[in-house]
Amino acid sequence: MIKVGIIGVGTVGTSVAQILKDNADVISARAGVDIVVKSGVVKNLNKDRGLDITLTNNVDDILDDSEIDIVVELMGGVEEAFEVVKKALKSGKAVVTANKALLAYHRYELQSLAKDIAFEYEASVAGGIPIINALRDGLSANHIESIMGIMNGTCNYMMTKMTNDGVAYDDILKESQELGYAEADPTFDVGGFDAAHKLLILASIAYGIDAKPEDILIEGIQNVTQEDISFAKEFGYAIKLLGIAKKDGNEVELRVHACLIKQEEMIAKIDGVMNGISVVGDKVGETLYYGPGAGGDATASAVVANIIDIARSGKSTPMLGFDRPMEGSKLTLKATQNIESKYYLRINVSDKKGVLAKITKIFEDNNISVETMLQRPASQDSANLLISTHVAYERDIQAMIKEIEALDFVNSTPVMIRIV
Amino acid sequence: MIKVGIIGVGTVGTSVAQILKDNADVISARAGVDIVVKSGVVKNLNKDRGLDITLTNNVDDILDDSEIDIVVELMGGVEEAFEVVKKALKSGKAVVTANKALLAYHRYELQSLAKDIAFEYEASVAGGIPIINALRDGLSANHIESIMGIMNGTCNYMMTKMTNDGVAYDDILKESQELGYAEADPTFDVGGFDAAHKLLILASIAYGIDAKPEDILIEGIQNVTQEDISFAKEFGYAIKLLGIAKKDGNEVELRVHACLIKQEEMIAKIDGVMNGISVVGDKVGETLYYGPGAGGDATASAVVANIIDIARSGKSTPMLGFDRPMEGSKLTLKATQNIESKYYLRINVSDKKGVLAKITKIFEDNNISVETMLQRPASQDSANLLISTHVAYERDIQAMIKEIEALDFVNSTPVMIRIV
């Protein structure tokens, strides 16, 4: 019998205990052994969770319990969780976590600490979708060319509603908060930080490259308006928040931002709160993984799959998928300014003579070539210029935006969305 | 160092050898050990494959070679391949195969023969998509409610072209044969048999249920016409060949046939030669896996992933994903006649008075309720009735079709396509 201790019995933790009980028949058949939750750590011992497991508010009751084989870390946060899982590994207990922030900061230290002990984290990226499994095992024969993913259900829900129902950003944000899809402070989701944590984890498995959230380009969806969405529709695009990892020679781009993406792409067809991750391998080509990125049961499904894996075979795969120096030792993170992309820009200008000519000149001066341009009235005396460009360097676009912003007939900072 | 022997160095076998060489850097980092192909078995020793491995035309040169750790079986066929892999397992060699027909017939025998030895078969279903991995490991916490998949790229290519370009079935079949997507005798693909082999493999992992191809409902796409496709479009459906496994109480339905499926479903959005498999678990909900279902490199990507898995950890998972009696011991195969579905029918009738009334009466007599009905001229003196029904039993539909076929004003066997 395998005994599990859960540190943090909230929504996901309760689901983990419930699944291990509800589905004990298939789980024990698949694991080859019975798996039970022995105890759980909670902050508030007085709240009834409807579970028949021993609850404690002392983490050490689990860490020091020699009967417990697997510690499930669902407490969240970075440093405190790091101390807890280190202690668990030191006492020889396998660890399963859903904590993406912990991994975004400490995955390489954990990889070396967990040398011979299983440390699994399927639920940390894209909830119920077994994307870690796919990338680390299923696609292991490939050099990964790119990963492109809808990794945040909140943003995808908001973009879908703005696209399908014509709702304004502020209204759909309020609705998402009421539905429980977005937090009271939504920055972590809508600012792209949640997706960035997940992207960093996937990039380590794919490339062995190390980076922290502060090293990479992270932008959110806060500036997207109905104007942008109608431009996107007109030219056959959807707007999505994507996490992108892309290898280019010996460099890897890592970035999270809103994107215009052609409607024919599979990833553009993923709507609502669902997540989807497209991976291109040099041998297999494109594969895509779709499913629920959040929710207690979906996330717990991934946690329990890790528990079953460990029960089956202990440690069967290196934590990040490699045991010897990987490509990462040769690869470097591409500087943001060297990223190449097509761009979409929305520039609000006063409706005066000569404006278009001046703007066009600035594009040319910065080596940026315009693909399409639309002018639409924004108010009685201002207009929006909606412009898409051919491929350009990020540094050139940024310099140009500064130049444009400084013009007296430009009313606000131009909004830029990258096109993939 | 791990040494591999490849039995059957054709398109996929050549790709396997090539990938192990081309991607040796990431492969050895991920496997923790170098992997090389020592030798391969071919029928014709004179053909140059551009590979620097020893070739032989004697299978025993590999089976008796004590240096070879992993045998890759790519010879195809059922009984001969079965003998070869049995011999490999007996001599303690791990086996990797892409042979779906072998597994469709012998997977349970192989599961017991391979008790302590790794036997892997990721490439046998959906080529480069790691669906075995997902179902056996990633979703192991779930009771599987259903599997619904586009498992045959040839059929999906043909249906997509018929839908998008208005091409007739015979023309697109000819084009598919010229492109190499379809065989000279296309029955194995267009008749649904290829998809059925794959479905049986997935159903074993999901349910532990045993069945052979001859036990289940298998139909192809041969009767689909432009008439059906235009009906489908008009009512918001796509037509796809699907493999379906569905649990209903203590019974499991297993069936392969053309389907009308709502265009909003993710699986309906998968076009061209691509494969896609949707799995619904009781805890995780729907996840979907998309990618190339065929092709030398894509298939070899899955074969090499299995080799890496074995190099990492030997046997880490039971072959079919369970060690103790699974649900399959409680579950039985649902009799085809008891399947419930909505149906679409195309009935070619002589254009006479009273025809509609008589047909409608027969629907009623068989407990089948009509949802929509269209009548369209087919020739100068005949018409097609295009009818969709509410949910009905397969036995009632089949009885009704016989009754309708016998009517003197009905010109040919009615065509029926199930709606999912």
From TrEMBL, chains A, B:
<feature type="binding site">
    <location>
        <position position="183"/>
    </location>
    <ligand>
        <name>L-homoserine</name>
    </ligand>
</feature>
<keyword id="KW-0560">Oxidoreductase</keyword>
<dbReference type="InterPro" id="IPR001342">
    <property type="entry name" value="HDH_cat"/>
</dbReference>
<keyword id="KW-0486">Methionine biosynthesis</keyword>
<feature type="binding site">
    <location>
        <begin position="7"/>
        <end position="14"/>
    </location>
    <ligand>
        <name>NADP(+)</name>
    </ligand>
</feature>
<dbReference type="InterPro" id="IPR016204">
    <property type="entry name" value="HDH"/>
</dbReference>
<comment type="pathway">
    <text>Amino-acid biosynthesis; L-threonine biosynthesis; L-threonine from L-aspartate: step 3/5.</text>
</comment>
<protein>
    <recommendedName>
        <fullName>Homoserine dehydrogenase</fullName>
        <ecNumber>1.1.1.3</ecNumber>
    </recommendedName>
</protein>
<comment type="pathway">
    <text>Amino-acid biosynthesis; L-methionine biosynthesis via de novo pathway; L-homoserine from L-aspartate: step 3/3.</text>
</comment>
<keyword id="KW-0791">Threonine biosynthesis</keyword>
<dbReference type="InterPro" id="IPR036291">
    <property type="entry name" value="NAD(P)-bd_dom_sf"/>
</dbReference>
<dbReference type="Pfam" id="PF00742">
    <property type="entry name" value="Homoserine_dh"/>
</dbReference>
<keyword id="KW-0028">Amino-acid biosynthesis</keyword>
<dbReference type="Pfam" id="PF03447">
    <property type="entry name" value="NAD_binding_3"/>
</dbReference>
<feature type="binding site">
    <location>
        <position position="100"/>
    </location>
    <ligand>
        <name>NADPH</name>
    </ligand>
</feature>
<comment type="similarity">
    <text>Belongs to the homoserine dehydrogenase family.</text>
</comment>
<dbReference type="GO" id="GO:0050661">
    <property type="term" value="F:NADP binding"/>
</dbReference>
<dbReference type="Pfam" id="PF01842">
    <property type="entry name" value="ACT"/>
</dbReference>
<dbReference type="GO" id="GO:0009088">
    <property type="term" value="P:threonine biosynthetic process"/>
</dbReference>
<feature type="domain" description="ACT">
    <location>
        <begin position="344"/>
        <end position="418"/>
    </location>
</feature>
<keyword id="KW-0521">NADP</keyword>
<feature type="active site" description="Proton donor">
    <location>
        <position position="198"/>
    </location>
</feature>
<dbReference type="GO" id="GO:0009086">
    <property type="term" value="P:methionine biosynthetic process"/>
</dbReference>
<dbReference type="InterPro" id="IPR005106">
    <property type="entry name" value="Asp/hSer_DH_NAD-bd"/>
</dbReference>
<dbReference type="InterPro" id="IPR045865">
    <property type="entry name" value="ACT-like_dom_sf"/>
</dbReference>
<dbReference type="GO" id="GO:0004412">
    <property type="term" value="F:homoserine dehydrogenase activity"/>
</dbReference>
<dbReference type="InterPro" id="IPR002912">
    <property type="entry name" value="ACT_dom"/>
</dbReference>
